[in-house]
Write a structure and sequence with these properties.
With about 260 residues, this protein is an all-alpha fold. The protein contains nine helices and no strands.
Length: about 260
């Protein structure tokens, strides 16, 4: 198998795994904000309580076969379920394309999974649950540590830890200066993102931090322009932070070079 074929297989495999993970994330997105276990009881229809059969748990496909309705009571099943599954599959595939067979891919797939879950939860309840964010510091550090041990890139791990401290400290300062505009859930998420972006480089840390505010400002301004939000409206910032981090992971180095080129002429 050629290197190109191996990468294609990896991307397809990660995309398929992402679909399966996305199915589980739908459970996480619904239950975690309500303080419910994500393990038990088994998934059931919220309308009639009937347990979801294994054959009806296939990502995307089952929803299409059932035409978006419960097999037992025919109650509609929201289209967001397959959307989350497809989104997770796409982000997993993109991460595989970005990192290839590098062992650090596992760490970034973990980020992709929690990123999708946190995005949807923040949009729903305007909160970034500690039960997801805080353990991610430990999990991400361990996964990046394994990558550093395998590759010998200990300097990348040190930079990742520094990136975590820098981005956390920056958001913490903003929250102290303007607590109405920055929640501490965002501060805690910033540390996790700084850990990952720091692994890649300082250009990624800067780009990821900047792009989060850029995306938030553009979308917030657009919502105000169409009168869907006002100056005092609470707009969840976590999704913009995660979107900025994703773009920085993919293009942060190139954006940094472009910025330096423009500054230096």
């Amino acid at each position: 198998m050629t290197d190109t074929s191996a990468i294609v297989v990896l991307i397809v495999a990660c995309g398929a795994i992402g679909l399966l993970i996305g199915s589980f994330l739908n459970v996480v997105i619904w239950r975690v904000p309500r303080g419910q276990s994500v393990v038990s009881p088994p998934s059931a229809c919220p309308s009639c309580g009937a347990a979801i059969r294994p054959r009806d748990n296939l990502p995307v496909l089952s929803w299409l076969i059932l035409r978006g309705r419960c097999r037992d009571c025919a109650a509609p099943i929201g289209s967001r379920y397959p959307v989350v599954e497809v989104l997770t599959g796409l982000v997993f595939a993109v991460m595989a394309l970005r990192f290839g067979t590098d062992v650090v891919l596992v760490a970034f797939l973990y980020l992709a999974a929690i990123g999708v879950a946190l995005t949807m939860i923040d949009l729903d309840v305007k909160r970034l649950p500690n039960v997801i964010v805080l353990p991610s510091y430990v999990v991400a550090t361990l996964l990046l540590g394994v990558s550093a041990a395998v590759s010998g890139q200990w300097s990348d791990l040190v930079r990742a830890l520094l990136g975590m401290a820098v981005l956390y400290g920056f958001y913490f300062l903003l929250a102290l200066i303007y607590p109405a505009g920055m929640g501490f859930g965002d501060v805690k998420l910033a540390g996790v993102l700084g850990l990952y972006l720091g692994w890649l480089g300082w250009a990624e840390v800067i780009a990821g931090g900047f792009l989060g505010f850029l995306f938030g400002g553009v979308v917030g301004g657009a919502l105000m322009a169409v009168r869907r939000a006002g100056r005092k409206s609470q707009i969840p910032f976590g999704p913009f932070m995660l979107a900025g981090a994703l773009v920085a992971i993919l293009y942060g180095g190139a954006l940094g070079d472009l910025y330096l080129d423009s500054m230096l002429g």
